[in-house]
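Practice problem 4.
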């Protein structure tokens, strides 16, 4: 029996052991799915706190219940920081971060370090899949040579694929199983191995011709969104100058049954994908002498939105004969999107930093983030404020930065001196509401 046939047999009879490296918003749901359908799953993470919580049956992600983790551990799941366990895995799926460095260039340190951590324990017959968003060529340029240094022939002894993650935390309409999975293999046998493992857990598989094509697919998805949000953010600024409600315009345009997809403005872009991924392509494109002006322009517009909101807050306070200095400001919602606890690249936090620099006294309320978490770039010693009539009246301004469903917006409207609405929560004109 050939190496590929032996791996396929293990996958088909669920005797294959799956190792998932990186147990965050992508890796943890994937672990649960494979565990649910009968595979032995080992989770790897360098964060000992995460490892200990999972082994105790506790979740650290809001939309994943501890009950699900407990059930998974009872089925045999275990988490570890000991990468020597990689040798016992037949499939290794890498779900590690790919941020930008301070120069807004790709930071592949997590991918490279992880690959080098697993490299000593690789063996014949394994499948390695990278799911982290990255620039076209990463799998071939960074993973392939490190695997080949072990003396393996990729596509014959060991198999390599790229299959971008497509998680959407907080979206009740989709789950890991129902989101189609794009897969690109380094060779046809690699693709065959990738299709074998992912088809067991995902309803629809979308094979493409190469790892580069799969890497570019993920970037196109996120650049499409970033560019359209940049467009509508710019339209918001123009509409505001013309005293037009951009949300009314978008809702009206969305009634067109063809040729228009509604995107909505906000205080900036957040999350691990949309604000970051386009710059992976712009950086790589320069290697080919191409300037991606359209992508970079949308990035400039989106990055400028917290500053735009800051100026709207300053103007609103000025209209009430108040200075931003020492004004008490409550930020409603600090997660990057509604109904989640994910703080990555949140524009709300960028806005908090700008307000602090201007001398404002900052507080926040977020039902999904009870205590301001440890972040690489931002440090606030704050806990979430309760939304009560008395508390609202104690603030000079309330800024709706993330429109969680859990807020009582009527209570906010009726008991706030000044509201800066960045999300179009209020569609009617009120004396105390400023659209931003």
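Answer key:
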């Amino acid at each position: 029996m050939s190496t590929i046939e032996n791996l396929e047999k293990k996958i088909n009879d669920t005797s294959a052991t799956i190792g998932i490296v990186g147990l965050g918003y992508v890796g943890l749901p994937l672990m649960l799915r494979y565990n649910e359908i009968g595979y032995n799953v080992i989770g790897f993470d360098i964060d000992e706190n995460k490892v200990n919580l999972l082994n105790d049956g506790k979740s650290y992600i809001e939309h994943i219940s501890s009950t699900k983790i407990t059930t998974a551990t009872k089925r045999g799941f275990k988490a570890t920081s000991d990468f020597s366990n990689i040798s016992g895995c037949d499939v290794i799926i890498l779900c590690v971060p790919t941020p930008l460095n301070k120069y807004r260039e790709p930071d592949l340190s997590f991918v490279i370090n992880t690959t080098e951590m697993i490299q000593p324990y690789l063996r014949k017959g394994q499948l390695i899949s990278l799911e982290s968003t990255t620039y076209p060529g990463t799998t071939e340029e960074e993973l392939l040579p490190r695997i080949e240094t072990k003396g393996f022939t990729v596509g014959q002894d060991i198999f390599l694929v790229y299959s971008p993650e497509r998680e959407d935390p907080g979206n009740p309409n989709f789950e890991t199983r129902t989101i189609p999975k794009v897969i690109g293999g380094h060779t046809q046998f690699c693709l065959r191995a990738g299709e074998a493992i992912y088809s067991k857990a995902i309803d629809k598989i979308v094979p493409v011709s190469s790892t580069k094509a799969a890497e570019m697919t993920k970037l196109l998805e996120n650049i499409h969104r970033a560019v359209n949000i940049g467009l509508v953010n710019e339209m918001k600024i123009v509409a505001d100058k013309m005293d037009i409600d951009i949300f009314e315009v978008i809702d009206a345009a969305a009634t067109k049954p063809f040729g228009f997809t509604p995107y909505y403005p906000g205080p900036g872009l957040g999350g691990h994908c949309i604000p970051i991924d386009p710059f992976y392509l712009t950086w790589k494109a320069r290697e080919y002498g191409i300037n991606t002006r359209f992508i970079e322009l949308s990035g400039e517009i989106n990055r400028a939105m917290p500053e735009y909101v800051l100026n709207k807050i300053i103007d609103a306070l000025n209209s009430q004969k108040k200075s931003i200095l020492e004004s008490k400001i409550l930020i409603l919602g600090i997660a990057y999107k509604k109904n989640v606890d994910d703080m990555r690249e949140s524009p709300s936090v960028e806005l908090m930093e700008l307000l602090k620099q201007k001398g404002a006294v900052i507080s926040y309320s977020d039902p999904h983030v009870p205590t301001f978490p440890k972040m690489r770039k931002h440090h606030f010693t704050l806990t979430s404020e309760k939304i009560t009539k008395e508390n609202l009246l104690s603030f000079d301004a309330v800024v709706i930065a993330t429109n969680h469903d859990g807020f009582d917006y009527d209570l906010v409207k009726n008991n706030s001196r000044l509201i800066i609405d960045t999300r179009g929560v209020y569609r009617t004109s009120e004396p105390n509401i400023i659209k931003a």
